[in-house]
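Q: My collaborator sent me two sequences in one message, no labels, and asked for predicted structures for both. Can we handle them in order? The first one she listed is below.
A: Yes, handling them in the order given. First sequence, followed by its structure tokens:
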Amino acid sequence: MRFEHIPHAVSVDPTAALGDARTIHLRQGPVRIYERGAGRPLVFVHGLFVNAAAWRKVVPLLADSYRCITADWPFGGHHTPMSPDADLTPTGIADTIADVIDQLDLHDATLIGNDGGGMLSQLVVTRRPHRFGRLILTPCDAYENFPPPQFNYLCRISRVPGIEHLAGRALRIPAVRTRCARSSIGFAELTNSPIDTKVLDHYLHGVTHDAGVLRDSIELLRAVDNRYTLDAAARFPTIDLPVLIAWAPDDQVFPFHHAEQLAADFPNSQLAEIPNSRTWVAEDQPERLAHLIREFIDPAAEMGQG
């Protein structure tokens, strides 16, 4: 079932900077991916209720040297529902990411995660690490902080009987949708400046237009549990990949002491700060993030340019 047409449909495509788009069909359902550039592969993993457009400012800064792969992972901001029997637990979504990477036959890939996507990236590299050469974690869920206290209400609401119909009706009202997204219970705490309305509409297009996507989103919220992040953390000492922890000290959702703990728990890691940013560093400080990615992957090249 699809919701009726909503007149606010996005007129400017926020994914235009991400490159060529196509759909990969998995047993779990369809996954829309975007590719731009050539070279060593970078795979970007976004957070909850956003999609590949979260990286729209970073990909153009890296595509001259790397094959940048973004996707609308089934994490609430996707536009096409997954199969009704798809596993939408954190480990199930992590397996979807790993399956896409297998289908693309990537080798020596750098996995880059932000927000909830950083949590998923932790699960991917601790469960199916063989395709990866490096891991980059920006502010994200970790250890006991899944979900963060600020967003635990979403998990509680997801268990309310009939929430699919209530949420579907409410989110179809543009003023309600925008007000929620721009409030402290939405995206307001995640960036220094408000997100453009067209980008917000793109992020929320699936849950406002398709009952299957809304179903997916509620199912994954019901599966949130920090046993997943704590289990991944127990395996960090066994991961010998180079790991960059690129964190925003000003972030109010994911504390900096977790960045320090991650850097201590991964045996081959380094810690870098991204000042003047909150959780969504790709939104607030894309140039700084792109520089850190280049420096981490090709330190000699970056020194030569300096």
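Q: And the one she listed second?
A: Here it is, processed independently of the first:
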Amino acid sequence: MTSTPVHAIPERPTVAVLGTGIMGSGMTRSLVRAGLDVRAWNRTQDKAAPLAADGATVTETAEEAVSGADVIVTMLNDGLSVAAVLAAAAPGVRRGQILLQSTTVGLDATTELAQRAADLGLVYLDAPVVGTKQPAEQGALTVLVAGPSAVRASVDPVLDAIGQRTIWVDEAPGAASRLKLVVNTWVINLVGSIAECLNLAEGLSIDPQSFLDMVKGGPLDSAYLQGKSAAVLSGDLTPSFTLSTALKDTRLILAAAERSGVTLDLVAASANRFERSEAAGHGGEDMIATYYAGRPAEQAGD
């Protein structure tokens, strides 16, 4: 794979955001607030349309979005989605544009997408983000980046707009995606632990709030524990990160673990819980809906 020279990037680059779901829409608004010219596109047009009121230019096609852009951001569902969208956008790309690939796609897809980018003459940055809906809306994500250091200054205005912290992991694409899988392992195991504590408390006729009050402010407490538990107890499972997307990421983690000879029992159990919760109709809810996998069968869909 040969390196692609970056074209001259202006101080305030024009950005194309391909994928405006929960994360992409928040990132788009953050880019607009930073004063950047942003084109937004989504396969489902009604998800992109509201961004026009925020100052983004909403385009009908991916090709139109990338035409004339300096930086292309992809925030989609998986590697296949990114590959399909890049193919659709291909007539509008030009050599030297920077592709900031922020979808969590796993190891094999990262390699494949880097090659697709090279074939299109794009400078590929493997750049998954850490954070959910609120940090995306606030421009407070952590961005993990692997790619050529020569483009850092060119892409800094974009990274500074969407994130409060950028970690340059390596020069070679793939390193950032590997680190993201480790981060997601922590998150997935944590959310499963929260769900199981709530399940057991209810099963033992203990008010779950008494558990939360007991740990509050101590070394066992966390904002994540309190926030996710509050979502369950209030019944408001509006997604910051959907359960179905968490299941997708869990499968990517397990595939990477198998390839590296590592056994991840907790992640495998989390995948099983996510699958049961998704089958009960909770896939579009927040990932803490894994809580429903631990309830009695007759209550799992409640």
